[in-house]
Write a structure and sequence with these properties.
Layout (H helix, E strand, L loop, with lengths): L2 H11 L5 E5 L5 H9 L4 E4 L2 H10 L5 E4 L17 E5 L2 H13 L4 E7 L12 H9 L1 H4 L4 E8 L7 H23 L7 E3 L6 H6 L4 E4 L1 H4 L7
Parallel strand pairs: 1-2, 1-8, 2-3, 3-4, 4-5, 5-6, 6-7
The protein binds pyridoxal-5'-phosphate (PLP).
Length: 224
């Protein structure tokens, strides 16, 4: 199937409240435009340089999400245009995003990344670390960063029960943080979970945002 058909199929499958982030990392502009032409506007990238280049070359009404691990010294390259940074997992990174947001005269939307998988290699916070960050005076005084929700990646496994358990854990974390820190504030509303292999389970477990790459664009031939 082609990229346009894949997008349309996914859109028809996803409930209205679920945002589809088309993960275009490693893929050429023509592939992104094929998705754009059938109405897709939200794209995800995990390399700063690649994201900045694509932003310059492609239509300006695309919403760009950064989904990778972001180094503090690279925030400045995307701060003026990025719509959502998914993988924030330290106070230090939030501070930098706040500072660069102020320079760009805008508020930058972020998600806190949680470690929910069994694999050791994946980045992310646990609930206590997140509470420490959100409760800190430093965080409370930030003016140019908005924490909009949570993000996580499940273990890469065929075991559906395991994946479900991890997604459910992320949903629980979201609920606890919302209750404790964002009670009345509707801007904390996103749960970014689900990829090509597990987005259906993720949506069943409460995802509001799925990040789908290979299902749309095909296999990636070099690892990003
Ligand atoms: C690459 C990537 C995806 C998309 O993965 P697919 O399996 O190709 O859908 C989603 N989220 C993150 C964080 C990624 O790095």
């Amino acid at each position: 199937m082609g990229i346009a058909e894949n997008i349309l199929k996914l859109k028809s499958e996803l409930a209205e409240g679920v945002t589809l982030v088309a993960v275009s990392k490693t893929k050429p502009n023509d592939d992104i435009l094929a998705a754009y032409e059938v109405g897709q506007r939200v794209f995800g990238e995990n390399k700063v340089q690649e994201l900045a280049t694509k932003y310059e070359q492609l239509p300006k009404d695309i919403e760009w999400h950064f989904i990778g691990h972001l180094q503090t010294n690279k925030v400045k390259y995307i701060a003026s245009f990025v719509d959502l940074i998914h993988g924030v997992d330290s106070l230090k990174l939030l501070k930098t995003i706040d500072k660069e947001g102020a320079k760009a005269n805008r508020t930058i939307n972020c998600l806190l990344q949680f470690h929910i998988a069994e694999e050791e290699t994946k980045f992310g916070l646990d609930l206590n670390e997140a509470k420490e960050i959100l409760g800190s005076d430093e965080f409370v005084s930030m003016k140019n960063v908005q924490v909009c929700g949570v993000m996580g990646m499940a273990t890469y496994t065929d075991d559906e029960a395991q994946i479900r358990k991890e997604f459910r854990q992320l949903k629980n974390i979201f609920n606890q943080i919302k209750a404790e820190f964002f009670g009345e504030n509707d801007s904390f509303s996103e749960i970014s979970m689900g990829m090509s292999g597990d987005y259906q389970l993720a949506v069943q477990e409460g995802s509001t945002m799925v990040r789908v790459g290979s299902f749309i664009f095909g296999q990636r031939y070099y690892q990003a």
